[in-house]
Amino acid sequence: MNEATGSGRQINSGFQVVDGSITVGGVPLARLAARVGATPFFAYDRRLISERVESLRRVLPAEIHLSYAIKANPMPAVVQHLAGLVDGFDVASAGELKTVLDTPMMRERVSFAGPGKRQYELKQALAAGVTVNVESGHELDRLAEAGRSLGVVPRVCLRINPDFDLRASGMRMGGGAKQFGIDLEEAPAVLGRCRELGVDFQGFHVYAGSQNLNAEAICQTLGQIIDLAVSLSEHATAGVRQLNMGGGFGIPYFAGNQPLDLAAVADGLAALMSRAHDRLPEARLVLELGRYFVGEAGIYVCRIVDRKVSRGQIFLVTDGGLHHHLAASGNFGQVARRNFPVAVGNRMDQPSSETVSVVGCLCTPLDLLADKVELPGTEVGDFIVIFQSGAYAMTASPKDFLSHPSPIEVLL
Ligand SMILES: *Cc1c(COP(=O)(O)O)cnc(C)c1O
Fold first, then answer.
1. Mean pLDDT, to the nearest integer, of 99-104?
2. Does 211 sit in the ligand 1 pocket, CB within 6 Å?
3. I need a surface site. Which of 86, 145, 221, 242 has the fewest CB within 10 A?
4. What is the mean pLDDT of residues 345-365?
């Protein structure tokens, strides 16, 4: 038994290989496919999710609370599993709220962030008793209105658009002009408005960036976020009881990516704790992560339907494609297309012997799952496995495009 690696070999997936086959939760792919009844499917591994959360708990300062941003993977079974492991959830729609309300997570540990919240969503959040991370002054007024109509006092965090961003991020979510959060300069006025409206001010939420593999950049930003909260707290009447610092912890997707140095992040955070204690003594410090919890714990499995050679180039045509996994095709915000780690899931004991391109079954040249990768020789019916598929895969894909069936998801 050994650990499966994808093409490029640098990514150790954590999925075990038995008799040449990748296994999920101890089940080999062929048996899993028979159980699921069809390909393609997504399979998520409970053990890997649990181990990931435990590895964070082991090294992070004890005062850090962990929250899961469920948009990374909102499968109800995954969210249920994480409910027993993390300290809170972050939701971004009434639909996601419904998913977390079906778990035992305490309501006061749920926050609702995101631009463009509708009035019915604000009302559902208030009725459920979750904290709303307000994204604008107008949204604050609308939330207060919803509170009056329901006879409840809204529990509010202000999401701040900082005057810095998380450098070296795959996606920038703060700094400059953004649709997210209240510009730092406007925040003192909005804090005054919180007082006038009589809402229950809890603290701040700052989300500076995502998919970051640079421990030093992450720590620098977390330090800036603590400083920002300290300086804004001088304008607040109530003490800061919550500081959601985002996180942006990335996972390695591509050749050459080095995994995040978690020990370095933990050391950097530990060094910030005394400042947080002194200046924000009542604040619950939260890291809000998505892909870092689940991204590496999932695989996408499709099957080779046709093997063809076009002018000397080998194409493995599969029953999967970008309608299930937009990110692997390179069309989910990537600047230059790069291959996700890929393997022939039932030939893990065989050496690579040919250069192939793995494509999906859609009528567009964009439907490319792996471009010119080295894989073992294959036959129709073999399993193609794409690693790092536990986050922003199925629910971030245009599954209705070409009217193929939706993929199945399983948690083992
Ligand atoms: C998407 C999102 C996250 C999770 O991002 P990851 O890159 O998956 O960790 C966290 N917080 C907010 C506000 C988000 O929008």
1. 98
2. yes
3. 145
4. 97
